[in-house]
Every structure is written in C-alpha cells, then in structure tokens.
Design brief:
single chain, 403 residues, alpha/beta, seven-stranded mixed sheet, six-stranded mixed sheet, binds adenosine monophosphate, binds magnesium ion
Amino acid sequence: MGSGTPYFIPLNEAIEISCKRKIKVETEIISIDKSFQRTLSKSISALTNDPPFDNSAMDGFAVKYQETIDPPNKFNISKTIEAGNKFDNIIKTGEAARIMTGAPIPQGADSIIPIESCEVNSENNTVILNQESKPHFIRKKGENFIENDVLLEIGTFLTPEKISLCAAMGHNKVEVFRPLRIAVISTGDELKLPGETLEKGEIYESNTFGLSGLISWLGHEPVRFSSVVDNLDELRKTLDLASKDCDVIITSGGVSMGDRDFVRKIMEDEGEIDFWRIKVRPGSPPLFGAWKNTPIFGLPGNPVSSHVVFRILCAPWLRSLTSSQHPKESQIRVKLEHDIKTVPGFITLRRVHLSDDGNDILATAKHHQGSGNIASIALGEALTLLGPEDSGKKGEYCNALIL
Ligand code: AMP
Ligand code: MG
C-alpha cells in the first residue's frame, strides 16, 4: 500500500472515494412481467390520463344534482351503463341511469347516488331518492395523473406497486439496468461448507450465503465461488477468474493486519487499493480498490462485520451505479435502554431489539455483541447508528437501521 493511500477513514469519506470508481451498468428492455426488483435505467412518463375518462366510483345511479335537492324525487331509469361501455350516453331531465363502478359518466350527469340510498321500483322502472345527493362519487379524468407526467424516475427500484403503476401508465415494457454479476469469495483454511462434518479447528462458512442474499436484495446476481484457502497462488487464481467472469468482486476474510491476511497482502502487492480500514464498529478492516480493473471490496471475515460493511459501504456504491435510492433500510429514532459500548470517533452499529414504551422506541442489545456472533444480527431487529460523538449512554437517542 502506498504511503498516500487513505487509511482508517470515516465512512462517508470511504463512500465518496469508492463512488469515484464507477463501472458502466448495461441496460435492457424487458416485459413488466419480469420487472420485479429491477431498477429503471430510463424515467418513464404516462401514456394516458388516469383515469382516461370521468367514471363512477360507486354502483348506483347517475343523476343531475340539481334535480335531487328537494327530496323525495322520482326518476325514470333510462339505461344501464356498465364498466367498458363504449357509447355516448346522455341523461335528460327526470332521468337516472343505472351505473356500475368504473363505467363512464353519461353526459348531463354530475352526481352518483350509491345504490344503498335508492328505492328502486323495477315494475315501473323508476327510482326514488329520499335525500339530496352530493355532486360526488365521480372520478374525474386525469385526477390521478395526466398524460406525459413523469411518475417514475431513472433509478426507481420496481416494487409490486410501481409495476402496477407502469401498467396503469400504459407501459408493457420498461428499460432497466442489467444485474451486475458479483463474485462472492470467502477465504480461510478453517472454512467448511454447511452440510459437511467439521474437523478440529474448522467452522462453517456462512458469509458468502448471506452476502449473496444481500446482493440479490439489491437486484444483482451473486456468483458464489468455492472458499479459497489461505494461499497467495490460490487466491490469485480465484481473483483472476472472478475478474474475468464478473463485474465486481467481494471477498470476505483476510483483510486485517495479520501475517495470514492474504487478501490485504495480495492487494498491496499486486492490486490497487483506494482505501483500507474505516471508522466503524464492528467492521473496521475493509479495503476497496481494483483487481485487474475489476472493483473489489475486501470485507472482514467476522460474520457480523461482513454483513454490516456490505450494508453501509457496498450497498451505497452499488446504488450509486444505477442512480438508485432503494432498496435501503428504513431509519428510525430510538432511545437506548441501557449503556451501549461505543468507540469515540467511530460509528457504532450494535444489534438491537426494539420495543415501544408509548413515548419512544427503545433499543435493547439482547444478544452477545461479538462480531463473530451471526445470531446477533440474524435475530436482531435493527442496527444502531451511533455517531462518532455519541456516548452510547442509557437514555441517549440515536438513529437505527431497521433490518
Ligand atoms: P479473518 O478476517 O480472515 O481474520 O477472519 C476473522 C474471523 O472470521 C475468523 O474467526 C474467521 O474464522 C471468521 N470467518 C472468516 N471467514 C468466514 C466465513 N466465510 N464464514 C464464517 N466465518 C468466517
Ligand atoms: Mg482468515
């Protein structure tokens, strides 16, 4: 690592530096059927007004409001107008048209009487209204949005509701970013796949499974590699393969100060490092840079650290590539129910449970807070975002990210 390489920097600086290393994300046009959890690469505007025409919000009768103001009033039922009706319907004085929800309002009508308020006499085809109507229950043309309104901007992450909005705007296809192929590589002689039998000194490799989930959550494609033993040649081979096959590389483990921290070592000697170590707890050791022009995040091996660092460092970088704000954890304000250990100058992300005392949302760290304890984040409900100046004392308020 060069002497000028940023070292042990605040998180915001790390994000800023990483975001300077951009890669181009390709785009494609896909059917909205396949668009769930994809990100728009082009803003889209409405091809129609919504609603496209004035229509009824209720099943009932369409009348002229003025004819209802001196109840009771009797109307001749002129016709029935159903949703999808294509005719130019008109009502005349003394007439009421039976109308269904979504059906076009006939010319001359300006009020809908809900069926519940009507006395229908089907023998002589009349309807009596015992109360004054209100000029309401009409959904006006364009009251929701109008043609050419840009409702979804580039970078929009497509949720089910937003997909329905695309359809309501008239789009059956959308232009989206192609998912990035992201290599996920764990390192460590001690790692065994779940399902295998642990020998002495071994543990189950868990990071790549969770990191893959986080990558999918952001709409990208995880490519999980077999774990690499602590050996420079093996690591070099795997990184070379990953940089050829994938757009981004994420490793876990081997980025600290130790002699066996080979990711850091190989990156120092043969890669490019943009920064190493950030002021967050847990998760201070990560590095970021490039391996043969492929951006690489070297995440810490401790399971909680790898998850936390992905959420606070990798996710903002990935979102920046597609101009996206989402998906993202919601932030809430919490009150600490007990003292929480902080490190002055660092952001502290403790795994907490939430409860409500009627005034505040209380945060309690229930599980052992070691960065090796994946259960603390898996079973926790939120991560504190205690700032560099916060004390972490009982009763203090801080932001928290909902997991
Ligand atoms: P390292 O950063 O390689 O020094 O690893 C830190 C700690 O995290 C060690 O206790 C490792 O055994 C553990 N660890 C490293 N990689 C993984 C992994 N993929 N899954 C679970 N634990 C890991
Ligand atoms: Mg290791």
